[in-house]
Every structure is written in structure tokens, then in C-alpha cells.
Specification:
Layout (H helix, E strand, L loop, with lengths): L2 H22 L5 H17 L14 E4 L5 H10 L5 H5 L29 H20 L7 E6 H5 L2 H11 L5 E7 L16 H7 L3 E6 L3 H13 L5 E6 L32 H7 L12 H31 L1 H12 L18 H15 L3 E5 L9 H4 L14 E3 L4 H14 L3 E7 L3 H14 L4 E5 L17 H7 L13 E3 L4 H13 L5 E4 L15 H5 L7 E4 L6 E5 L3 H16 L3 E5 L3 H4 L4 H7 L6 E4 L5 H7 L4 E3 L10 H8 L3 H12 L1
Parallel strand pairs: 1-2, 2-3, 3-5, 4-5, 6-7, 6-8, 8-9, 9-11, 10-11, 13-14, 13-15, 15-16
Antiparallel strand pairs: 12-14
């Protein structure tokens, strides 16, 4: 250890961070100046990774919660050789790989996309759960750590309660989080917002908590050393830091700790940029230079990291040579490759709710996919993820041999943890709750889409037919919200989300097949509470016909030159079948019926196929238990969609069907009126 070099390196990080913000005329300089000491000590002395192999599966991982401190990460990783000078100089600009909030870029050390406060460290908790899960199956040699970095805002976001509770309850001693406690927020002092005792709060959740001077390198070292030695609890290191550490005015007076240093270039505050750069030992005319001594210092650090990683790789190689079968299984997990799965063989009783059909599929997956973690927000016996739970055990402190996470009532936390599990790699995460509570999950779903994570969302109780639970539990607008994500492309130019609302049991089998095979983006399964009549098979083989769902939509009833085409998804397809019988028998009409479980995938098919299923030269009638907009794009300008345009009411499901116009007889009349 070299006190002079350590201080110089931390000051170099500060100078780079404020220069990035100054040049971009946008960003947050004060926080990076406060967190520089911790980052330098962490990465130079404790963080285990291979600079020559950044995607090494058994590396330590760093999860940034305070995404507005992106310039801190870029500056640190620039010293590590992950960025070039021109990269940090183009901070927040078009085409830059140093955006305003970090985006997943494992090759450069960025493990998670962060921005919405609270989610970053919660994804870190998910990664720590994933590491424990794998360690339980492959051995204690798999002992990498997950580090988190959180700010006052992240601690205040409600999601931090769920993350803190679950991490403490599970005893995630492999999770170490630094809390950059600088008493300053974007628009006020922290004291104006809260008076809670953060340390006591985390201790109550079962965390080891230590409070240090966040600028004292010896205190940082000891805290990290103790955290790495902890065997029972996650660790929170509360680092008391100074916002804008090192800032000075034009006359050289110190100008630290001011709120205005949080969110704008320091040249626009009471501090002076040039004088601050000089105070930090930087060359103002070359603001993006790495100091000479620091460059040599970090060259040695990187050489040592490569050597240390090589020693760890030898240990792993020895384990592999003695555990061939396990090593093959681990490689399979990490590759994302699925075992052979026979969804056709999953038998379903007649007339099941699709949540019950999903339960049978989950039971099959529990027996055949060893690297799945399924979680439910205290609803496993109702969203029917208990089909999986019955074949495994829950994750608990000291025992991660099971595969079911009892998240408690914490939908957003649970979904964000799933994102972290997916980011870690090697495990397929599934999370479940009632569809109406997808509202609580939307911020995490959005980050699933942005980060292109194959999380599987299971949403049951899909419509007003929840009945007696009343309007609070009856989704109406939720499907429209989720389907908007099918229309949004991610940065890989793929449909960012796949939403599937299957029409019956066999289509549920196919929907799960689609979800499991989708390794590029998140998938949502929207499932019914009530039983649904099975869709009649044209060929006598319903599963094979239901494979049409893989094209997003298909005809479940087909005639030549139909008089009308009826379209729906989920429960309403069976209602259309009933209505079609009446249209044929009473009006002599020829009717086609299309099930469209995913408009997004359907729109990716050829124009010829789309035209075959939903011809533009025929009358189109759509039925949806949600907002009419769910199907209006498919029905077209000359079509009609009947849906729900109000909140639900409390009553039995069959009564609501009758009151709202969703019986076969009522739909028959609506179609006749439409055709007239």
C-alpha cells in the first residue's frame, strides 16, 4: 500500500469525473468526488476479476444503484483500461459508450443498467442469490462476491425495504454494499427528508453494519476485509463522505458539501473548475489524462489481477477434472441451453383455468430444468406456482439447495431480484403474482426490456372474472399497458417484450414452450383464474394446432371465404366459439376464429400469413376483457372491438360476464348488429 499513490489515484478519478460533466455540460459531479476513495480501494485491492477475460463467469460483480454516478464508474474503469480517453471525453453524447446512466456492458465492467434508484442494488441481491444457488450445487470454490453501491435516494426508495429484508433473511454474506452517505440530495439536504437511523434499520433486517469515514483509506480497507470474512450476514458499509470532495473556489477556499454540487457542472456553482482541477493535481489543459504515476500504479494492479485470476482458474480446472459430470452441467447452465423438454407430453384435464394448466407445466419444469428459480409474491397457492414448489423446497439461510424463493408481498423487489438473477447468468428466473399487481412491477419490467433479460413473468387472475374480489383486483387496463412493450424495440432492434395470453390448456403448454425458448427478451404469461372450455381441435390434435401460437396468432376455426372473422385471446376465444355456433346455426354465417396470444409476434410474420389469419377485406370483430385498444390495431379501421371501458364490480364471475356482455349469446347479437 502506498498512501501517496492511493490518494493520487482517488483524486485522478475525481478530476476525470468532473471533467466529463464539465465538457458535457450535464451530469452529477459531487457524488463521484465523494465516492472516489471507496471505488479505488475496492477495485485496486479487493475486487476479483480478470482484466484479460472480463466476462469470466466467476468474477466478482459490482452493481451500481446510483446510476447518476456513472462518471464515477467510467473514471474508475478508465484507470482499469476498460475505456479509452475519447470514450470518457464523449460522456453523454450521441453514439457514446459512456451514457448518462450506465447500461449493461460486461466487457467493460458494467454489470447492470442503473438509473431508477433502488433497482441497482436490488439486482445485486438477485445476483447474490444466484451465486448462492450455484454454489450449493457446484461447491464452495464458487465464492465470488457481489458488491453494491447505494446513495441516499436508493436507501429512501421503497424497494430498498424489500431488498434489505430479503437479503438479511437469506443471510446473503456474499453481498457487500457501500452506502455513500453524504447528507446531500439533488434538491435538499438529507436531513430535510428523513431522520431515520439507517444503520439500525439494516441491523434489524439481519445485516452486519459498519460506519466509517468514507475518505479514510485504512477504514475502507478494514471494512472491506471484515465484510469479506463475514459468514452469516450481508454487510452494509456506511461511508460518511463529502459531496464535492476536493472542490475549491477561485481564491482556493474549500467549497465542499453544498447541494448545488450534486447535479450540475461545478463550473456553474460556487466552485471553480480550473482551481479544483489544480487542487486535484490535474493538468487543466489535458483534463482526461491519467496521471503518470497512477498509470504505472494501475498497470501493476492489472498484472496482479490477471495473476490472481489465473490461480483461481487453476483451482477451478482441478475441480473440473475431478467432477466431470458436474462440470458439464455447470457449462450447460452458463450457456443458457435448455434440456430437451416435451411440452406435448404434459397432460391437462378438460376445462382448466390456464393458471392451473400453467401449474402442471411448472411441475414438469421443476423435474426437468435444474437451473430455475421460481418466486411468488405470497400467492403461490393462488397463482399456482405451487406446481413448482411441490417438487422442490424454498431457499433459506444456510440452505440454497431448493429452487423456490418466497419473496413475500414485494412485487417490485421480486421482479428486480429476478433481473439480477438473470444478469448473473446460469439461472432462469420466473416470478408470479396477480395480473393487476403487474402495476407494482412496471419499473422492473421496463429494465428487463432495456437490459434484454429473459425473465419469465407469470400473471394470473387476468380479467374482471376475479369477480367477488372487486374492482381493485380486476385488471382492465393492464393488458393494454403490457402490450405497449410489444410495440417497443430494444437496442438490439428486437421486440422488447413478449406478452402471451393463452386461450386454453394446450395453448398454455405452447406459451410456456415459447417463454422457455425465448432467451433474448422477457416474456409475460397472462393466465385466467376461472376454468375455460378447451378450444375444439380441427384435426383432433389440439396441441399441434396450438403450436400456431408460435406465430403470435392462428386460426382455431377456419372455413373457405368466411362472412366474418372473430378475433380474441385468452378466455374470450372460447366465448367466440360459443358465439360462432349461434352465428352459424341461426344466421347461416361462415365464421373464422383467430386466437392472437401475441400481437407483437404476429406482426413479425409475413404479410401473406397475417392476411390469411385476419384478412383486410372481411368484417373483423374482436372481443377482449380489457380495453378495446388491445385488439383495435388488429381489427383495423373497418372492424369493431368489444371490450371493457370501465372498472369492474364485485360479483361472481358468471354474473359479471352477463352484466358486461361477455356471454356467447350476447356476443352473437353484437356480431349480428355489427354486420348489419
Amino acid at each position: 500500500m502506498n498512501k501517496e499513490l492511493d490518494q493520487l489515484a482517488a483524486d485522478n478519478i475525481r478530476a476525470l469525473a468532473i471533467s466529463m460533466v464539465e465538457k458535457a455540460n450535464s451530469g452529477h459531479p459531487g457524488g463521484p468526488m465523494g465516492g472516489a476513495d471507496y471505488m479505488h480501494i475496492l477495485y485496486s485491492e479487493f475486487f476479483n476479476f480478470d482484466p484479460s477475460d472480463m466476462q469470466w463467469s466467476f468474477r466478482d460483480r459490482f452493481f451500481m444503484d446510483a446510476g447518476h454516478l456513472s462518471s464515477l464508474m467510467y473514471s474508475q474503469y478508465y484507470l482499469l483500461g476498460n475505456y479509452k480517453k475519447e470514450d470518457v471525453a464523449s460522456f453523454r453524447q450521441w453514439g457514446s459508450i459512456t451514457p448518462g446512466h450506465p447500461e449493461v456492458d460486461v466487457a467493460r465492467g458494467i454489470e447492470n443498467t442503473s438509473g431508477p434508484l433502488g433497482q441497482g442494488h436490488t439486482m445485486g441481491v438477485g445476483a447474490a442469490i444466484a451465486a448462492k444457488f450455484l454454489q450449493a450445487r457446484f461447491g464452495d470454490w464458487m465464492n465470488h462476491k457481489i458488491y453494491g453501491f447505494i446513495s441516499d435516494g436508493g436507501v429512501q426508495e421503497e424497494i430498498s425495504q424489500g431488498a434489505g429484508r430479503i437479503a438479511g433473511h437469506l443471510g446473503l454474506n456474499n453481498f457487500i454494499m457501500f452506502y455513500d452517505s453524504n447528507d446531500v440530495q439533488l434538491s435538499s439536504k438529507t436531513a430535510e427528508v428523513t431522520s431515520e437511523d439507517t444503520a439500525m434499520k439494516y441491523e434489524a433486517w439481519g445485516w452486519k453494519v459498519v460506519t466509517i469515514d468514507g475518505h479514510d483509506h485504512e477504514q475502507i480497507r478494514k471494512a472491506l476485509k471484515d465484510a469479506n470474512a463475514e459468514t452469516e450476514k450481508p454487510t452494509l458499509i456506511i461511508g460518511e463522505t463529502i459531496m464535492g470532495k476536493g472542490c475549491v473556489t477561485a481564491d482556493g477556499s474549500m467549497y465542499e458539501g453544498y447541494t448545488e454540487l450534486h447535479g450540475k457542472p461545478i463550473g456553474d456553482t460556487g466552485a471553480d473548475y480550473d482551481k479544483t482541477m489544480e487542487n486535484l493535481g490535474a493538468d487543466v489543459s489535458n483534463p482526461f489524462d491519467i496521471y503518470g504515476k497512477v498509470a504505472v500504479f494501475y498497470g501493476d494492479i492489472l498484472s496482479n489481477k490477471i495473476k490472481e485470476a489465473a490461480e483461481k482458474k487453476k483451482e477451478i480446472a482441478a475441480w473440473r477434472s475431478s467432477n466431470g459430470t458436474l462440470a458439464t452441467k455447470l457449462d450447460c447452465f452458463l450457456s443458457g441451453k435448455l434440456p430437451e423438454l416435451d411440452f406435448e407430453s404434459i397432460l391437462q384435464k378438460e376445462g382448466l383455468a390456464t393458471r392451473a394448466a400453467s401449474s402442471a407445466v411448472l411441475g414438469h419444469l421443476a423435474e426437468n430444468v435444474e437451473n430455475m428459480i421460481v418466486s411468488s409474491a405470497d400467492l403461490s397457492n393462488s397463482d399456482k406456482t405451487d406446481g413448482f414448489l411441490k417438487k422442490t423446497t424454498i431457499l433459506k439461510k444456510g440452505d440454497f439447495s431448493g429452487a423456490f424463493l418466497q419473496a413475500g408481498v414485494a412485487e417490485l423487489t421480486m421482479a428486480t431480484i429476478a433481473n439480477g438473477i438473470a444478469l448473473h447468468g446460469g439461472i432462469i428466473p420466473v416470478v408470479a403474482t396477480f395480473f393487476v399487481f403487474s402495476d407494482y412491477m412496471k419499473p422492473a419490467i421496463r429494465l428487463s426490456c432495456i437490459q434484454e433479460l429473459p425473465v419469465k413473468f407469470v400473471w394470473t387472475h387476468d380479467a374482471f372474472r376475479v369477480g367477488e374480489d372487486g374492482p381493485t383486483h380486476q385488471p382492465v387496463e393492464q393488458e393494454a399497458q403490457i402490450r405497449l412493450l410489444e410495440k417497443l424495440k430494444n437496442h438490439s432492434h428486437e421486440q422488447s417484450f413478449v406478452a402471451l395470453r393463452p386461450a386454453d390448456s394446450m395453448e398454455t403448454n405452447v406459451a410456456w414452450k415459447m417463454a422457455m425458448e425465448n432467451s433474448k427478451t422477457p416474456t409475460g404469461l397472462i393466465l385466467s383464474r376461472q376454468g375455460i372450455k378447451d378450444i375444439p381441435a380441427k384435426s383432433g390434435h389440439r396441441y399441434k394446432e396450438a403450436l400456431g401460437a408460435e406465430k403470435g396468432g392462428y386460426l382455431v376455426q377456419e372455413v373457405t371465404d368466411p362472412d366474418v372473422v372473430l378475433i380474441a385471446n385468452g378466455s374470450e376465444v372460447a366465448t367466440l366459439v360459443e358465439a360462432a355456433k349461434l352465428l352459424e346455426s341461426k344466421e347461416g354465417l361462415k365464421v373464422n376464429i383467430a386466437s392472437i396470444p401475441s400481437e407483437g409476434i404476429f406482426r413479425q410474420q409475413s404479410k401473406e400469413y397475417q392476411q390469411k389469419v385476419i384478412p383486410t377485406n372481411k368484417p373483423i370483430f374482436g372481443l377482449t376483457a380489457g380495453l378495446p385498444v388491445n385488439l383495435e390495431g388488429l381489427a383495423g379501421p373497418n372492424g369493431k372491438v368489444f371490450g371493457l371501458e370501465h372498472f369492474g364490480y364485485s360479483a361472481p364471475a358468471k354474473v359479471l360476464d352477463e352484466k358486461f356482455g361477455f356471454t356467447g349469446e350476447q356476443v352473437f347479437k353484437q356480431v349480428v348488429d355489427f354486420l348489419k
